[in-house]
Hints:
By secondary structure, this protein is an all-alpha fold.
Amino acid sequence: MTVEQIATDAVAFAKLGAGIAIGFGTIGAGLGIGIATKAMLESMARQPEIAGKAFVNFILGLGLAEATAIYALFIALQLVK
């Protein structure tokens, strides 16, 4: 193997790692958002009077779940760089 082939393989594996990182990151965020939505809707169905407080906590939870996808995107961009 030449140095150029090794460098090309390293770049290819970095791009593969970036794809895997963003894939798992978005799957995790999607599952987190789905579970949070389900729980909020169930709690509002049982006790409609807590809708305002539940919505505020729901938005906070969405932000935390979406942060995982943003971290995965950051790592993927660093791997491709």
